[in-house]
Amino acid sequence: MTDTASPFTVIHGSSIDPYQEKVVFTYSDDPQDWKKIIGERLLFNWGIYNHPDSPRPVSLDEAGLRYLERQLELAGLPRPARTPAMPSPRRILDVGCGWGFILGHLASLYPECPRLDGINVTRRQLEHCHTYLSGMGLSDRVNLYLCNAGDVALLPDPDLTYDLVIMSGVATHFTNDLYEEFISALASRMSPGGTVVISDTLYKDLSTYQSAIPDLIDRQASGYRKDPDYFTKVLIDSGFVISAMQVLPSNSDVAHWLLEVLSNIETHYPAGATGSFKELSVTAVNLSIGLLLDKISVYSIIATYNGR
User: pTM value?
Assistant: First the structure.
């Protein structure tokens, strides 16, 4: 079922994702409160700090943008974004588009791209996303969908396939069944040679991993851990070729980002955070320990769709 009577289109598939409400809870706080924690750009995608142009403190916003730009470079996407050998994408998809910064940045990089789509399951994020992108004058190019990733095959205009897809930290919130379902459905909507740019937190040995903090709560909707072999196998089985895969940002940069976020939570909630921000504060400590022990890393993965 599709409902277009809102700033975004609501798409409902026939199946129900029982984990979706946990993800919705994680991101339903006021965007103004989130800005205090992760920066004005609301770019929840880690950051790069160890950079030759950084003799001064680097903000979360700057670190996050550096990481996004480094990933696009890893994917071979040039700046300026269009060259005779690599024309502008016809259609772009941001999976789990959050509060909208990445969509806006891609629209600026690719001014000739007529169609950018963003999907998300959290209404409050999409409302902010709509306001933010409308303020940039992008309402005629960007389409927003309140849509579970499992329903990506139901997005409109299947004949106009995706040339570029961004997945920044989103598979962390997928059950394994949803991840497999989504990747299979995404493959059916990709252009031949289309590129998927992925960032996700993966666990190097799930058979031996133990959380530093007792896992009494599924914090930040990240309870379905995945390792690199499983993560890439699902992509390959659906017709994708892994063209690049590396630890990026470094473990120390990710820990830096997490501890800065933790500091912001403690500054703005001196009596103690509640709800999702409390979960994020515990997650920041837990992941930082795993990163420093090299049990966890954030991987940047570039996958190209070659068909099945």
Answer: 0.93
